[in-house]
Specification:
The chain folds into 3 domains: 57 residues, no CATH class; 101 residues; 372 residues, YVTN repeat-like/Quinoprotein amine dehydrogenase (Methylamine Dehydrogenase, Chain H). It is elongated. By secondary structure, the chain is mainly β. The strands form 10 sheets. Strands 29, 30, 31, 32, 33 and 34 form a 6-stranded antiparallel β-sheet that branches. Strands 5-44-43-6-7 form a 5-stranded antiparallel β-sheet, with no helix packed on it. Strands 8, 9, 40, 41 and 42 form a 5-stranded antiparallel β-sheet that branches. Strand 35 and strand 36 form a beta hairpin. The chain contains no helices and 49 strands.
Length: 541
């Protein structure tokens, strides 16, 4: 007996000798009874009517639930303990005001000077470099942040026995046989600052093993600033002022042993620079900001292998010196923007912030925004990658305390968040430096006391991330867009979701905390399925 074909009209109804044919359509039939089937010729799926809705036939299927929050088509979703369905996308919460942790100390009774600090992402530890005023030695101390608690390590190391002056630090990932932190500083022979030096320390947990002190340049450099690149052989670029010129020198590393990079010392600019700050985008661009007496200027440096080249100086502030702190420039890795913070001596010495956009060998600037009006010491700025905001730290000299302002970049503009300007560390009039602990979602703040003669440490919580994805709660993909509280349909294991983009065919993809899919597993490892095209994935929970 021949198989029966059931079609939607006489033209579709045919008798075939070897198969059953089904009616094809680009949309759901207008009416149906339980058990009816049709082939969707648009998404190439066989569909069955279950009495209330059409569902994809085969090994996959769908489930329904109440949406907790809005869902977009193709969004990875989880089931919550109350049975509702929500997006996997993590939520960023910015604190206003910020949270200030308890105070701890590295030393008491001897005022430290020339503080710098860097976070080692591989070890989840901070390293502070500073002058111990009692001994006039440069020291390094490993510091751990756990939530609101800050613990300085007993493993404080002598870095240099020569009298240091300004310091800076950079982290260099394990690319040259060492998981290293680099400290750059200049020292004095008897009374004159004569030599700029750099030293690297290999870290194994809280154990810091130091290499030998190495001369960056012997002809009276000042204001050292440094960045570390992630070349396979390890490289550090040191910036400094000498005779009012901004200079640069490349340092190569074999483990923690330094040598000069070929090409020698380079001139960044011959402008009469007074203060200097640099920021690195983590790949190939450096923004060098400085004041040259009457204007604030910036130069773009481009890194290519062992070499660095510089564009022409561009003015971002006129009419008065734009004085910068040690960390007067930060890089926004989310927006690919730089933020410059400076004290405008041409405008009542107000502290201002301005956005810099780097393109090629030059930078363009937005409109400056007032951060703080009133007597202040130089401000420093640090990027919070968790909250996507910049923490601007100032000293309010009129009230003799530190304040933290949170700033947000939008396009070429910067806005100081309302509710920030949080005061902490009262009765202190010395500048401070911060480093961001990505694991603890906090800043480590270090400063030297004034009246107290203490080296104080605190954690600052400016933002936090709430993550919803676990190893077990992913169930599939939203089948359409749904509003909060609506009944949502979810495509589950065995189904094919066709609302994706940028997939790699024939590769397993994993759900990420931000709602994206990647061929690299996140933490936890949550497989989403196998891509069968750039837009389709077979769901495998």
């Amino acid at each position: 007996m021949a198989p029966l074909f059931v079609g939607s009209n006489s033209d579709d109804s045919r008798i075939r000798s070897d198969r059953v044919g089904l009616a094809a359509s680009t949309s759901n039939p207008a009416s149906a009874d339980t058990g009816d089937v049709y082939y969707n010729s648009t998404d190439n799926k066989l569909n069955v009517y279950d009495g209330s809705d059409w569902a994809e036939a085969g090994g996959g299927g769908t489930l329904s639930g109440i949406a907790s929050g809005a869902l977009t088509d193709g969004m990875p979703v989880i089931v919550q303990s109350d049975g509702t369905i929500r997006s996997v996308v993590q939520e960023v919460n910015n604190f206003s005001p910020i949270g200030v942790g308890t105070t701890n100390y590295i030393q008491n009774g001897s005022e430290p000077k020339y503080i710098s600090v860097i976070y080692n992402t591989d070890q989840d530890l901070h390293v502070a470099f500073y002058e111990d005023e009692t001994s006039s030695n440069l020291k390094g101390s490993v510091i751990q942040v756990i939530e609101d608690s800050v613990t300085p390590s007993v493993n404080t190391k002598l870095v240099s026995s020569r009298h240091p002056s300004e310091t800076d630090a950079a982290f260099m990932a394990e690319t040259s046989g060492a998981n290293a932190v680099n400290a750059v500083f200049y020292t004095s022979g008897t009374t004159l600052y004569t030599m700029g030096s750099i030293i690297s320390g290999d870290m194994d947990g809280a154990t810091l093993t130091l290499g030998s002190e190495f001369s960056v340049q012997t002809s009276t450099p000042t204001t050292p600033r440094c960045i570390a690149t992630n070349n396979t052989d390890g490289r550090t670029f040191v910036f400094y002022i000498r005779s009012a010129d901004v200079m640069c020198r490349g340092i190569s590393w074999s483990g923690i042993t330094a040598s000069h990079t070929g090409g020698g010392e380079q001139t960044v600019t011959t402008d009469s620079a007074n203060t200097l700050s640099v920021a690195y985008n983590g790949s190939d661009k450096v923004l060098i900001a400085y004041d040259e007496g009457s204007n604030g200027k910036a130069v773009v440096g481009t890194i290519s292998g062992e070499a660095i080249s510089f564009g022409s100086a561009v003015t971002f502030s006129t009419g008065g010196a734009a004085l910068l702190g040690e960390d007067g420039v930060s890089y926004d890795s989310t927006l690919d923007k730089f933020l410059i913070v400076y004290r405008d001596q041409g405008d009542s010495e107000d502290l201002k912030a301005i956005v810099a956009t780097v393109s090629g060998t030059s930078a363009t600037f937005g409109t400056a925004t007032d951060v703080f009006t009133g007597s202040n010491n130089l401000g420093n700025v640090y990027y919070d990658p968790v909250g996507g905001k910049h923490a601007i730290v100032i000293n309010d000299q009129a009230n003799d305390l530190h304040k933290v302002f949170m700033a947000t970049i939008s396009g070429t503009s910067v806005t100081v968040d309302s509710g920030t300007g949080v005061a902490f560390l009262a009765d202190q009039n010395k500048r401070m430096r911060l480093s961001h602990d990505i694991d603890q979602e906090r800043f480590l703040a270090l400063h030297r006391g004034n009246q107290t003669q203490k080296f104080e440490l605190q954690s600052l919580k400016t933002s936090t991330i709430t993550k919803y994805l676990t190893a077990n709660n992913f169930i599939g993909f939203s089948d359409a867009a749904y509003s909060d509280g609506a009944t949502a349909t979810v495509q589950i294991e065995g189904s094919v979701d066709d609302a994706q983009s940028g997939l790699t065919t024939a590769k397993t993809h994993y759900v990420q905390h931000d709602g994206t899919l990647s061929t690299t597993a996140g933490t936890p490892s949550v497989p989403a399925g196998t891509a069968i095209s750039g837009t389709k994935i077979i769901i495998e929970t």
